[in-house]
TrEMBL record:
InterPro entries: COX15/CtaA_fam, COX15/CtaA_HemeA_synthase, HemeA_Synthase_type1. Catalyzes the conversion of heme O to heme A by two successive hydroxylations of the methyl group at C8. The first hydroxylation forms heme I, the second hydroxylation results in an unstable dihydroxymethyl group, which spontaneously dehydrates, resulting in the formyl group of heme A. This is Heme A synthase. GO terms for molecular function: heme A synthase activity; metal ion binding. One of its GO terms (biological process) is heme A biosynthetic process. It is a multi-pass membrane protein. It comes from the Bacteria. Interacts with CtaB. It is found in: Cell membrane; Membrane. It comes from Kroppenstedtia eburnea. Heme binds at H216, H278. Pfam families: COX15-CtaA (PF02628). It catalyses: Fe(II)-heme o + 2 A + H2O = Fe(II)-heme a + 2 AH2. Keywords: Cell membrane, Disulfide bond, Heme biosynthesis, Iron, Membrane, Metal-binding, Oxidoreductase, Transmembrane, Transmembrane helix. The gene is ctaA.
């Protein structure tokens, strides 16, 4: 049973990433109305009577989302039942189910009733949380299998300042992701035809397409600087914590690649594969930051954390 649930969690993580990319494909190709204003079927038909590229891009996204959602629910419920004493497993299992259902309902609402660009941008953010939750659940289950239900935990202490810094970075990353999704939904991806500069404009006006694009660029640039700070702080103060150094290093690499692919989207005039690569890197970067949050535990709790993530005692997320 443990092996089956682990396998399903890994499959769910891969599937959730596929959902995110297919959702980005729907937005990039303008296929959101491919099935009309009916949901979950296309124009009210299980098997559409006519076919267009936009229809099948949208309908395939719905089909895959439904199948992956079922896998995630089964894996999460199974993980919860198998590891009732592990708060981290239960926390991630709950988030996995909650956010994959929430993003599905938001998608349905957008099809049936329509939504503003500001609300539509939330859809990608919730998809991001869903992917991170499912991926980290798979990571925890794999680690439990390798290490067993350890009760000890890592004896090193992480400062409360670093905890707040990591958790703050996760929140700020979500804000940057939201502005990026807002850029897409408002059609502002080419609001600035140059990169990294935007002609003579330096200060965004927040309302025009130029302002929306430039705001996202400035926030993304600041995010990269935060990632550099995190890597430096962890490397300097906690060189013995391999888990934190690994997470901080990947965060830095992924955010750098994210910035570069963001610029490439503009320079290649919205090349689809570049845009999908950018979305993939965003998902992986956010997951890396969430991994660090899981490793250090809540900043409001002053306790000795654990990198094992196993038993209830020493579990970083235990309240």
């Amino acid at each position: 049973m443990n092996r089956t649930i682990r396998g399903m969690s890994i499959l769910g993580a891969a599937g959730t990433l596929l959902i995110v990319l297919m959702g980005a494909l729907v937005t990039k190709t303008g296929s959101a109305d491919g099935c009309g204003n009916t949901w979950p079927f296309c124009h009210g038909e299980i098997f559409p009577s006519y076919h267009t590229l936009e229809l099948w891009i949208e309908y395939s996204h719905r089909i895959v989302s439904g199948l992956v959602g079922l896998i995630v629910v089964v894996a999460s419920v199974g993980a919860w039942l198998l590891h009732k004493q592990n708060f981290t497993v239960k926390f991630l299992a709950f988030n996995s189910v909650f956010f994959i259902v929430l993003q599905g309902l938001l998608g349905a609402a957008a099809v049936i009733w329509g939504q503003s660009d500001a609300v539509l941008a939330l859809h990608f953010g919730f998809s991001l949380i869903s992917f991170a939750s499912v991926l980290l659940l798979a990571v925890v289950l794999i680690r439990i299998n390798r290490q067993g239900p350890s009760r000890g935990g890592n004896a090193s202490t992480v400062s409360r300042q670093l905890k707040y810094g990591i958790w703050g970075l996760a929140v700020y990353t979500y804000v940057v992701v939201y502005t990026g999704a807002y850029v897409r939904h408002t059609g502002s991806s080419l609001g600035c035809a140059d990169w990294p500069l935007c002609g003579s404009k330096w200060v965004p006006d927040l309302f025009s397409q130029v302002g929306i694009q430039l705001t996202h660029r400035l926030l993304a640039g600041l995010l990269f600087l935060f990632a550099v700070w995190l890597w430096w702080a962890v490397r300097k103060k906690y060189p013995h914590r391999k888990d934190l150094n690994r997470g901080a290093r990947w965060s830095l690499i992924l955010t750098l690649l994210q910035v570069l692919t963001g610029g490439a989207i503009v320079l290649t005039k919205l090349e689809l594969m570049v845009a999908l690569a950018h979305a993939t890197l965003v998902c992986l970067f956010f997951s890396a930051v969430c991994y660090l949050c899981m490793q250090v535990g809540p900043p409001w709790k002053d306790h000795r954390d654990s990198s094992s993530l196993q038993g209830k005692q020493g579990d970083p997320l235990t309240p």
